[in-house]
Amino acid sequence: MTDTVPPLGPSPLSTGDPQIRVDAARTLIAAALQPLTQTEVVPLDQALGRVLGVDVISPIDVPAHDNSAMDGFAFRGSELRQDADSAWRIASLVMAGDPSPATPPPGECVRIMTGAVMPAGLDTVVPLELCREAGTQVGERVLLAPGRLKPGENRRLQGEDLSLGRPALARGRILRPADLGLAASLGLTELTVVRRLRVALFSTGNELREPGQPLDPGCIYDSNRSSLSAALRRLGVQVIDLGLVADDPAALQATLERAVCEADVVLTSGGVSMGDADYTRDLLARMGEVAFWKVAMRPGRPFAFGPLRRAEPGAPPAWLFALPGNPVAALVTFHAFAQEALWRLAGATAAPVPRLTARSVAPIRKRPGRTEYQRAIVEPAPDGGWQVRVTGSQGAGILRSMSEANALLVLGHDQGSVAAGEPVEVWLFDGLV
Ligand code: AMP
Ligand code: MG
Known about the structure:
By secondary structure, the protein is of the alpha/beta class. 18% of the residues lie in helices and 29% in strands. It is built from seven helices and 27 strands. A hairpin with a 6-residue loop joins strand 9 and strand 10 (141-144). The longest helix has 19 residues, at 327-345. Adenosine monophosphate (AMP) binds at residues 203, 205, 207-208, 220, 222-225, 269-271, 273-274, 324-327.
C-alpha cells in the first residue's frame, strides 16, 4: 500500500501572520492533514501503542461454548422449586477444559467448575456456597432453598464476549493492553498496524550546546530536544534526531532538506517559529506553504505550521511544526497542537488525551481573549473529587514548573478569572492510555 495524499493545492493556511485562536489553529491543522495509510504486520507483543490499520473481525465465538461462571452444580432452570427445597443427584463431574459433557436425566445435576462447558440442555448453575447441602461425588445429593436463584443464572453464553464475523476491534484504535488480550482471545498472533510515523526533530539557536559538552559563555544546554523526543517516543513515533542547527540560512536549509527527505513530520523548536529572520521566511516560502501564526495563547505564541514539498512527484508533503524555543512553550504547544495532529497523521481515530474537570484550589486571574495553559498539580480533594493547584512560577522558560506538574490547567479563550472552588479543565500528563 502507498500513502494517498492529494497534490498540494491552494493552502487553507494564510501566511500573513494573523492573530489566531487556539481552537481555530487546531481546526486548520486537523483539516490539512492526511492520515498515513501504509500498514505493516507486527507480532502481538510488538503492537502495544500502535494504531490498528484494519478492522479485526472475530474468526470465532468467544467463548466458544456456553460455560459455567461459577464452581457449583449445573441443572435445568425449570426444575427450580419456589415452594420447597430443590434437590438433585450428582450425575457426573466436569472440569474446565473437558470436552462437552453428557446431559444428565431430569432430577440430576452435573458438578461443574468455572469455565467448564455446560452440558446440553442445562441452563443454570448454583454456586457451591449457595447450596444448603452440596455433595461432592457422583450419586450424592444437592439441596437448594427456595428463592436463592433464578433460571439462567451463572451461565456464560457462547459468543457473549465476541461473536463470529462481528468486528472485534476497529481500525484507528490505539492498541492498549486489553486490546492485545482480546486479539489473543481470538487466537491471533499478529496484527496489521499503520506504519510508524517518522518525525525529524531538531533545535535551532547559536546559543545551544549538547548536554555533556562544555557550556561556553552565554550558552545554554538544549533541553527541548530531550523533552520533545521523549514526548514523541511516548506517542510511539519514530524519532529522527537531526541535532542542533545554528542560526544560519545554509545550515537551516540543509537540515530542512534532509528532514523533508526522511520524515513525515518535521518538528523544530526555536527561531524558526518566530520567522523573525527574513531568511527563514524566504526559505520556508520556497519549500512549502508554511503559515506563521500569532496564536492567542500563553505560553507559546509564535508557532508555524504547514506542508513542505517533497522532491518526488505525487509524494505527500512533510508537515512542519515549528514550536517556540522557550522550553515550557515548546512542550505546551506540542501538547496543544502537535500531539493530536500526530495521532491523526498516524491514522488514530480518537483523541487519546482525557480532558477532565477539577476544582481550582485558589482564584486565578485571567483575561478573556487568549487560551492559557498553567502548569498544575491535580490531587484528591479532602471532601472527595479532584482539585487542582498551579505549580510555582509560570514563566515560559521555567521548565521546573512543568517538571513538578502532573497536568496542564487549561483556561479557554473566552474565559475570565476563576474563583476558588470553581471547576476548570485539566489535561493529565499521564493516564491509563
Ligand atoms: P527563540 O524561540 O529561538 O527565540 O528562543 C526563545 C528562548 O528559548 C531563548 O531564551 C532561547 O535561548 C530558548 N531556547 C530556544 N531553544 C531552546 C532549546 N532547544 N533548549 C532550551 N532553551 C531553548
Ligand atoms: Mg533562537
